[in-house]
Amino acid sequence: MPVPRTGRLSGTMSELTIVHLLRHGEVHNPTGVLYGRLPGFHLSELGRRMAEVVAETLATRDIVEIRSSPMERAVETATPTAERLGLKIQIDDRLTEAFNVFEGVRVGNGTALLRDIRRYRYFLNPFRPSWGEPYVEVVARMKAAIDEARERARGHEALLVSHQLPIWVTRLAAEGRRLWHDPRRRQCALASLTSFTFEGNRLISVGYSEPAGALLKESAAGEAGPSAGA
């Protein structure tokens, strides 16, 4: 779906504001661990190329505000766009990855988590989920960050760089869908944009695009495990 452009609604004085949620690019993760909030995980060479492609795509957008999760991979994804637009990146902890008890565990295709019966207690409630930060809490902090960015960029556009799970559950909530889901079916690829368009304070549409889509076939990154996010 094309990303809509900012403007005033025909025949009205209502301002349109767009808040883009950008997922970071591919991460260098040779051991295949679920890195979550662990420090020291940076973009791979491909991830840096993804960030540059996104910057080229957004160079002509009316973006006046850029915020990023504090994780290195998110800041590195935001940097090329910020440099092109001459904007400072504001670090916003509310955009960070969801907490997960399996951080640091090698997940492979996801089955590795099931080999230790001591971990089974974390799978008791997939609706919350029991292995990490509750979905409702993730949505609440993301919504607060979006609302603040919308106010600061009113009539223009804002770019918020975050992670797959926070972006996806925020979209589910905005579209009135249930928050628990199959991680394999998230529409939130690496370096993708999920764009919320507001008329005043009212959300009127949600768009999705993959500026770096041509590079995705080169990525070996997997999203296995319970709400692996990334």
From TrEMBL:
InterPro entries reported for this sequence: His_Pase_superF_clade-1, His_PPase_superfam, PGM_Phosphatase
SUPFAM superfamilies assigned: Phosphoglycerate mutase-like
A GO CC term attached to the entry: cytoplasm
GO molecular function: phosphatase activity
A Pfam family: His_Phos_1
UniProt-listed Gene3D superfamilies: Phosphoglycerate mutase-like
Protein name: Phosphoglycerate mutase
Source species of the chain: Thermobispora bispora (strain ATCC 19993 / DSM 43833 / CBS 139.67 / JCM 10125 / KCTC 9307 / NBRC 14880 / R51)
